[in-house]
Amino acid sequence: MSPRPAPWAAAALLLASCHRPDSGPPPGSSIPPATTAVAAHAIESRMRVASEEMVGTVRSRQSAAIASKLTATILQLDVWPGQRVRAGDTLVLLDAREVDARLAQARALLDQALREEARLRGLASQRAVASQDLDNAVSRREVAEAGLREAQTRASDARLVAPFDGVIVSRLAEAGDLATPGRSLLVVENPEALRVEVQLPESLLPNLHVGDPLPIAAPAAPTAISARITEIAPAADPVSRTFLMKADLLPGAAGGLRSGQFVRVRVPLGEVETIEVPSGSVVRRGQMEMTFVFDPSANVVRQRLIRTGRVSDTGVEVLSGLAPGERIVAAPATGLKDGAPLVPVPEARP
Q: Mutual orientation of helices 131-156 and 97-125 as an angle, nearest 10°?
């Protein structure tokens, strides 16, 4: 007879059979996977004012090129770029010896004409001279007075002054150079009076009118700058086929801008229907942009390619790929894939 197994051995076999690892459901059985609740964002359309960005240039409304009316040597030029000047300040002194000589000559001729007129008037009172001689003397005196005024004006041209309060932005000559009529020596601008100049295509003109406000964005300014349209050219440039528009910056709205800088001008195009989603809902993989849309029939999410537009503080504009009424994952987790089992819950609003 074979010996019976010991009681403790039978108990061990029974315990091992109770803790056998589960081998899973039978092949072919269908058990739905567990789902996870995530925040969902409901897609809604809204109306907004569409705009097109154009590049503009900042200019000064008050800008003057200082040039001489005389041909003379520059004796003094002591201002430098960046220096502030006030209206009437002396900027350039020219060698005025030649004009001073002409001024002295004009004074001498006037003095001679006055004495001659006085002598003839005395003779005319005694009827000792013809009236025509006195008339000629009066004419010579008037000519001498005009000559003196001209000489005085020429003498004043030897001193070039600032035409308005501003800043020297360019120095184009040095002391000792020969100043000639038409040659710019300095450029003065008023940094407080700025405007933006933009070349616009004809298609944008119907949306713009003189007096309309115009938002301007600049890299040097943290916020949008306010401007107002003051001029729209009635004729197109024959080379570029564009129209010049000028918009003055409102007082105190320069925002640190300087003449010559570029800015972006938002030209309104009218109201359009748009879709905007939270920036965190857009997933970028290489050159592709996508989001995850809930499929209510299977409680899963589907990966959807989209095309985005402008980015604002409130979110990202979606140009194509989504429709109003759909719900997307507000903040997709890293590694989320197409077909993941997720259940939407309303997104928490601040």
A: 160
Residue 268 in contact with residue 207, Cβ under 8 Å?
A: yes
What confidence tier does 51 reach under pLDDT thresholds 50, 70, 90?
Answer: confident
Q: Which residues of 271-300 are buried (b: 16+ CB within 10 A; e: fewer)?
A: eeeebbbbeebbbeeeeebbbbbbeeeeeb
Nearest to 95 by CA among 22, 12, 18, 180: 180
Task: State the amino acid at position 218 in one-letter form.
Answer: A
Cα separation, 13 vs 63, in Å, equals 103
The pTM of the full predicted model, rounded to 2 decimals, is: 0.60
In this prediction, residue 189 has a pLDDT band, given cuts at 50, 70 and 90, of very high
Cα atoms in the Cβ-side hemisphere of radius 13 Å centred on 163: 11
Cβ neighbourhood burial of 329 (10 Å; 0-12, 13-18, 19+): buried
Q: Is-contact 32 56, C-beta < 8 A?
A: no
Distance of alpha carbon 200 from alpha carbon 194, whole angstroms: 19
